[in-house]
Model the fold of this input.
Amino acid sequence: MRPTKQIYANYTPEDFLVWKTLFSRQLKNLENKVSNEFIYSLEKVGFNADSIPDFIKVNEKLNNYTGWQLVTVPNISEVNEFFIYLSQKKFTSTCWLRTLKQLDYLEEPDMFHDVFGHTPLLSNKNYSLFFEAMGKLAVKHIHQKEIILKLQRLYWFTIEFGLINENNKIKVFGAGIISSKEEAEHAVGNKSKKTEFNLIKIMKHDFRTDILQNEYYVIDSFEQLSYSLKQFETELEEGCLIK
Done:
């Protein structure tokens, strides 16, 4: 049974080896691919290869930067529950790690994805404001499935699989790319389609969770993400998003 609370003393030598292997390998793989802001944020929260992050210490740092917190869950949260947590500046994370045999592929996100991929940028003010605002918007429309679906798509193509233009170079900032060697190489490579961020197009763009993405959207800044939610509300008021 998967834990619902992080008990640091329960991590085994294999867990530490898994974390160290994944951290070292992926950080090297992300060279020249990942957003500079992610690297800066990684240092801010104090993550390193030798230590599995302690949620108590991580929460202290996040609280000082943006007021966000990690909340431990055993599995992927149900959609409505997830958005409710976001509205409260809480990010749901597992605290279990894959095994050595699962280093290259895992069907369900584990702690490496949740913590290494998502947590550092929660220390970034503009990124975290977008996250919180998305949660609040979802809670406002929590019983309208079509709107929630569109917010899921926005989440998928930004927070999970978003790219950013930094000094005229396309860089990764989405956690689903950051935590995956294969996805990172594919996302910045020549074979993937990179499209300028377009809220309306994203609202209509279905996605699959079991394959490499065929298309990625590129933002110019994290501030642009917050602006997109204002556009979302405007489009919603005008009835454009429910057609």
